[in-house]
Design brief:
Blueprint (H helix, E strand, L loop, with lengths): L1 H25 L9 E2 L5 E2 L2 H4 L1 H8 L14 H17 L5 H21 L4 H22 L3 H23 L6 H17 L1 H24 L12 H14 L2
Antiparallel strand pairs: 1-2
Helix pairs in contact: 1-4, 1-5, 4-5, 5-6, 5-10, 6-7, 6-8, 7-8, 8-9, 8-10, 9-10
């Protein structure tokens, strides 16, 4: 049963990852997610119609032409793997939908931040709402409210911590990072306080290692702006998977 669930999750993740490639292209450019006209009057098809995997499946000719943020099948493979690992970590539980959402949002936000150095409110906002709702459902299903209370407290604490850092050093962190910290704080603290500490600290460690690596490779200097969001998200996912 578990093996079947993992396979299904991997396939679902690949399909969602394919749609994320399109979404990561449209959102930073202000293009509509749904079918309709863009601000420039260009017609935009539905998100699922432009997803490479679904487009190829519908055409049946193995060919695809379209505009995406990352060339397929990179996000398809990454998202599929994250979905499979999430099912392996949580099984078929009440918490599973919440952490599958975290996996998908992590991929999407990381790509956008790496390419555009920003974390759009149009993604972070719904992500926060979904996290709150799904974690509430998980707590209700598990019959205990302690993890949810801890999640709300953890989200507030991490949000406040990042806000202080952003105010002290405006050039180091953006408000997108601050808002994202609040959401990640909920996910991490829902599992435990130790997971919150590991995930929060891990973001700074990963960012430091990336910065050192880029400078060593002469791809960046001390004054270069390196997106912090991907480090936060990678550390959070790592803490979720590693710490039991």
């Amino acid at each position: 049963m578990l093996v079947t669930s993992i396979v299904v999750a991997a396939l679902l993740g690949a399909l969602i990852g394919s749609m994320l490639t399109v979404l990561a292209w449209r959102v930073p450019r202000g293009l509509p997610v749904r079918a309709g006209l863009s601000a420039e009057g260009a017609e935009q098809s539905a998100l699922w119609r432009d997803a490479p995997l679904l487009h190829i499946s519908a055409r049946g000719n193995g060919q695809w032409q379209g505009v995406v943020a990352v060339r397929p099948p990179v996000l398809e493979v990454i998202t599929g793997a994250l979905f499979a690992l999430t099912v392996l970590r949580f099984g078929l539980s009440w918490t599973l939908p919440a952490y599958l959402t975290l996996a998908a949002a992590s991929v999407l936000l990381s790509v956008i931040d790496l390419q555009h150095q920003r974390l759009p409110d149009v993604i972070v906002g719904p992500f926060a709402v979904a996290a709150s709702a799904l974690l509430t459902v998980a707590a209700f299903g598990e019959g205990t409210w302690e993890p949810l209370v801890r999640a709300l407290a953890g989200g507030a604490i991490l949000f406040a911590f990042y806000l202080i850092l952003a105010l002290i050093s405006p050039g180091g962190l953006g408000m997108g990072d601050v808002k994202l910290a609040g959401v990640l704080g909920m996910y991490l603290a829902y599992l435990s306080w130790r997971t919150l500490i590991l995930g929060a600290a891990g973001g700074f460690v990963i960012a430091a290692l990336v910065g050192i690596g880029l400078m060593a490779a002469r791809r960046a200097s001390r004054d270069s702006m390196v997106p912090f969001g991907p480090s936060m998200l990678l550390a959070a996912m790592g803490a979720v998977f590693i710490y039991q």
